Amino acid sequence: MPKVGIASYGITKFTKDDSKIESVLLKSTKNLFDNNPNLSRNDIDAVLVSTNNNSKYLSAILSEMSGIEPKIAHSIESLCNSGTNAIVSAYSYIASGLADIVLVSGAERYDSPGQILEWDNSRGEFKHPIFWASIFTKAYKREFSVTDEELAIVPVKNHKQAQNNPNALSEKTYSFEDVINSKKLTDDLRLLDCSRPCTGGASILLASENTCKKFTDVPIWITGIGQKTTSAGFTKNIAFSSMESTHLAASTAFKMSKCNVKDIDVAEVHDAFSVCEPMALESIGFTDKGKGMDMIKELHITNNLKINPRGGLIGSGHPLGATGIAQTIEITQQLQSCANKRQVENAEIGLVHNMSAAATSSTVLILER
Amino acid sequence: MNFESELKKGNFIVAECLHCQKIIWPSSEFCNKCFKEVSWRKGSRKGKIIEFSKQNNDHFCLVEIENTIKIMGKISSGIPNVGQHVKIERCGIKDENYYFEMSLI
Q1: ipTM beyond cut 0.90
Q2: Phi/psi at A150 (nearest 5 deg)?
Q3: Chain A 241-280, residues with CB within 8 Å of chain B CB atoms
Q4: Which of A163, A184, A219 marks a domain boundary?
Q5: A117 CB near a chain B CB, below 8 Å?
Q6: Among candidate residues B20, B64, B67, B11, the one with its CA nearest the CA of residue B39
Q7: Shortest distance, CA A355 to any CA of chain B (angstroms)
């Protein structure tokens, strides 16, 4: 398979702003061009937009507003992992030879319709994500004898780490007491256990091997891709204390990249809610089942930034269509040694985990220097 | 006849493929294995709690019916347990959402 790499990226601050989706898309695209003065609009063969926004024809609109006339232009939607789905599509266009350079731009507004999956009637009147998150949390706590107090480490750690991310929604740190005493949404979920919907954009430029080297001295290669959709409906999950689609996607990605979980120096995992972080770490294989919180506790105490250095979704905010792209930008910056105060030393291989709708589908990417 | 039109009337019916001898859930006109048209029958209103949590005064439970169908429903009295049996007391469609009100048995 021909090599595909990351040639450039751009991002906006994640906020609660009431901005138009087109404006959010344009902002991160402009930032990408600002970051790479050598890039000409004529170079871009395809423009892919990742969003759950209901506006139509956004890739053509973004192209026109950016002065690009691409061969290929379309949107990609897959709820919360739209971003990495769009990156995988871009990779495929390049690997197949249909395109040489692809711009992927993701954006969302704080009021995204992607938060509720209307189709999933098996959830009855409990369609908001806080209900599946409560079931996951209760099942995880029950199976592995984990307490609410232990799970509170996840938001404490991720808000702490987000303070070194200038684009994060979170602007303060929280104590364990703050998390435990935050608004109780259900018996098993508090407000600070949740990532927050927000307005934000993230763009990334993918290119073939030789072209990539023209635009950056430190290209980052996508060496592993794994995706799995086990169902659409939350209740179809075979387990509620682990993520089957994540486990399968990670296995595929590791196989493709010819590396294993021990080789991963830094990772962004999809902590939509506190419990998702230990579940994701276990399902990817970073640690044994039920041991995720031990790993997270150790990382927190030693200020080790290996997992979610930008603050994850809980610290950064979760603009659905932009999230997977923002995660990929973070790992790219880590591998390029330009993550400033968030830098994990000597990071050479990184992993991105992005999932949708109660882990009914997952994408795992492996990135290498 | 379809699942939603019956649910609107408070009835709980099940789509079954007689060819594959399997229940199709979420309900659909066609079998997801052989694509033959399903047939409809009255569903059991008894199920088993897989997991649950609580919001305000109501428990919300993930319940399995006929070892296949999993739905989320509400229990307004009593304290549920995993594995406990429940009965659908009322079901229907309210504000475009399905609802299942259950009681412990």
Answers
A1: yes
A2: -65, -45
A3: none
A4: A219
A5: no
A6: B20
A7: 22
Number of domains in chain A: 2
Q: Which of A116, A118, A120, A123 to mutate to test the interface with B (most CBs of B within 10 A)?
A: A123
pLDDT tens track for A156-209: 999 999 999 999 999 999 999 999 999 999 999 999 999 999 999 999 999 999
CB contact under 8 A, A124 and B53: no
CATH code at A23? Answer: 3.40.47.10
| pLDDT tens digits, A229-247 | 999 999 999 999 999 999 9
d(CA A206, CA A336): 15
Element (H, E) at A304: none
The set of residues, in sequence order, having a beta carbon less than 8 Å from that of A70 and lying 6+ positions away, is A44, A45, A46, A47, A59, A63, A103
From B26, B51, B62, residue closest to A121, measured CB to CB: B26
Q: How far apart are CA B34 and CA A182, in angstroms?
A: 50
CA A38 to chain centre: 28
Over residues A121-160, the pLDDT tens digits come to 999 999 999 999 999 999 999 999 999 999 999 999 999 9
Domain enclosing residue A36, as ranges = 4-112+198-219
Angstrom distance (rounded) from CA B97 to CA A54: 21
